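Blackboard transcription, Thursday session:
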Amino acid sequence: MPTSTHCLPSLLLSAQTNSPDTPVEPLYRQIYTRLRLAITQQVLKPGDRIPAARALAQEMGIARGTVEAAYGLLQAEGYVQTRGPAGTIVSLNLQLPARSRGETPTVSTVPAVSMLAEHAAHKPGMASNGSTLPFQMGLPALDSFPRKIWARLAAQVIRATGQEDMLYPPVEGLHSLRQEIATYLQVSRGVTCQPEQVFITAGYRETLHLFCTALLKTQDQVWTEDPGYPATAHVLTHAGMRAVAVAVDDEGLRVAQGIALAPTARAAIVTPAHQSPMCVALSLQRRLDLLEWAIRQQAWIIEDDYDGEYRYQSRPLPALKSLDDAQRVLYAGTFSKVLFPGMRLAYLVVPPSQVPTFQTAARKVHSGAPLLTQKIVHQFMTQGHFARHLQRMRKLYGERRTHTANGLSKVLGNYLEIAPQPGGMHLILRLRKGLSDRAIAACMRVHGLAANALSERTIGTSAAPALLLGFTNIDSQATAERLAQMILRILQETSHAEQICSTQCT
Amino acid sequence: MPTSTHCLPSLLLSAQTNSPDTPVEPLYRQIYTRLRLAITQQVLKPGDRIPAARALAQEMGIARGTVEAAYGLLQAEGYVQTRGPAGTIVSLNLQLPARSRGETPTVSTVPAVSMLAEHAAHKPGMASNGSTLPFQMGLPALDSFPRKIWARLAAQVIRATGQEDMLYPPVEGLHSLRQEIATYLQVSRGVTCQPEQVFITAGYRETLHLFCTALLKTQDQVWTEDPGYPATAHVLTHAGMRAVAVAVDDEGLRVAQGIALAPTARAAIVTPAHQSPMCVALSLQRRLDLLEWAIRQQAWIIEDDYDGEYRYQSRPLPALKSLDDAQRVLYAGTFSKVLFPGMRLAYLVVPPSQVPTFQTAARKVHSGAPLLTQKIVHQFMTQGHFARHLQRMRKLYGERRTHTANGLSKVLGNYLEIAPQPGGMHLILRLRKGLSDRAIAACMRVHGLAANALSERTIGTSAAPALLLGFTNIDSQATAERLAQMILRILQETSHAEQICSTQCT
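(Written on the board underneath:)
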């Protein structure tokens, strides 16, 4: 039964009168926070209608887009849902996190980085092979994973192991897991698909390999982002494709350049949410241009949405796939960033018409993912832990990003100025042209710090030198400051410090 | 508490009175379906006795074999069990799916075969993709796996999960598991290697893919066995290689033919212990010829030792790799046959000189196996369960092979004579030339029995037609006899029975 919501504008307007010394949050964020609070405290209950964005904006005297941004965020997180002509309501199937029961600690007190640095010190070989040195990119916050819940679910799954769990797993993946993924994608990423369209893989490389096997043939051209994720071009080349590096600018992939370089390419592989590694979002115009090209050429787009959930300054952008009426987009997701990489589970959503082709391809190349891990993840999702974990991590990463940026700025403030980008899992520290980001990164690695040089991820374009630093495992500003002291010494040792005159961030 | 089942015949007889326009199911199938329904709906409860086949057949006025065929199917699927003089009862440890309680069916311990048979009925692709119909090839005895021990170890591993277990696993595999495998190979298969030579993969396909990536280039020729395991040629072709089918005779691969057909091939893939599917051992002379050719050509030999442990009439043959002083042999093993396939773990032992090459290749193509399954297997091996399990299975399979051969012979004795081969996990039933093993196998599959036709695994040679029947999940001679009754009826139905004049086995 919808209840009246006429008191909402005043409730929301009060949000602007913050205490004078705290910085005022952006307005959409205040609206979002207040509404979320009203929902979590059950002032607004499931089924309650919230005012139309247009009406609320008028009443508050603000831009409609501001309200829509707040609503978008609430919707992406599952707090509200649109009901067509009925407008937007508080989600009917909303299950609020059981935080009050103290189930899982939000932030562990373990100093994550120091422990891992010790670990790495004993395993020197790990650095080039995905270790957890401080600033390691692409790793989730390992100290904040709900391991107890995970262990409990895993134990349940193992106790219930039957003979059917010992068989060769279906090459497409466990059906119940595919179902959960389809539901999650609909709610969180605006992607509408059937479970049959979801193919489980053992990781991004296997996802790409499956795609190449199903839809490409040897020597096909494929656009890749430049700078980009190095593994993409490696896997393509290994599979016999020709990777065509297409430059990335402030709006993401330069589609026009792609068309100029390889108009008849058979596919494009993009990271629309936060370009890897530049963290820019693919603009709406570019999204439309890319889709138009794909439709015209009957080419395929792989949307690699590896960290699409992690946007801190506005709502997570809906997936490119959500615009894809013509079914040219394949959506690639992974559990490596949102849960943890050791489980080796990822997935690819393919167009309905291509399901049989992918079934054949999967039979050709896949070994299938172990049923055990698939079942644990399924339980984790079904029981609502997945959504809660995502929500907690979005908040935690927002904090860690700020702490890390502040800590680095405080110590290296004379040399660097760091503006955090809207999303992603790493910061970009730009260096003055002429400096070697590779040399500095190499030197940092020698000192036990993970650092990636932007130039190592660049092919054709001559990007300004920059360092890429993961912040997800930096647990506090104090840790960031200590690490920044190390960087400072490294810069001084390598005589680079005095040369660094300006920094900026995307 | 066993209850009386005297109403059963009438219950079953009613099965025959189908509506006139639906095609009547074979009688044994009707009996089977009705009984299964009675069990799943708990009309018959665990421990309830079901009538003796002879008595039921008399009461229904049908052949005893018909009833036995139905019972055989129920027993193979785990719904009923024989209790010696006590007759046949509904299985005591039967746990029916908890669907009625609205739980997810995934965590239940459903009788494997029936569920899968249903599943397969809806997914025609399944039967060829590893389901558990009776006579399924290549599956271990799922009913005899020490699941309790496994669950206990798994729970321990999960409780001990640390942050380092959540990272990307090493692409070569967990070092402690590689160590255990190296030790096992030395003791059991006469293969001397260091842990660094062992590369963990997600299965045989990934093993082959890794090999192709590391040591071959596009269009390289590779000898494969004919008849052979179909996946081998598929993976090679998919990886861009040219598979050269080389005939197999009583001594295994005809090395001289290989040399005649493709003297400069870069590799040969063989199953020396029990050739797949002919079960012959590669003779010592052929082993030496093959090694000599490989040394001369600097070619590679992949020894696929998928079931080398299972030899019943003498001790397991040492691996070909144990003769390999020149380091031309790569040894491929898997846990799918000796533990269970659902875990997706296999391995490849490479020559010491090729370790760096394989490390590079693994980084290119592998996603890495989940640490969880690797750690569980490691514990299973370290604590001695692996060796004990192998020993128990060697004994059990020896018994099941004998029981299955005897049961089939007893019923089909007028048509077939089956001599069990010295090793492996399946029997070969040879048919007279001119008969279509494919047609018979297809007909068996329609009736819910797994059967593989030898001709489906043959490329160039015209092998005498034969059926390949897995025996590892046939739990007694009685079951084998009941299933043989079904085969007999199928042979009669398909008008093949009278044509079958002789059978023999390798």
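Lecturer's comment: The radius of gyration of chain B is 24 Å.
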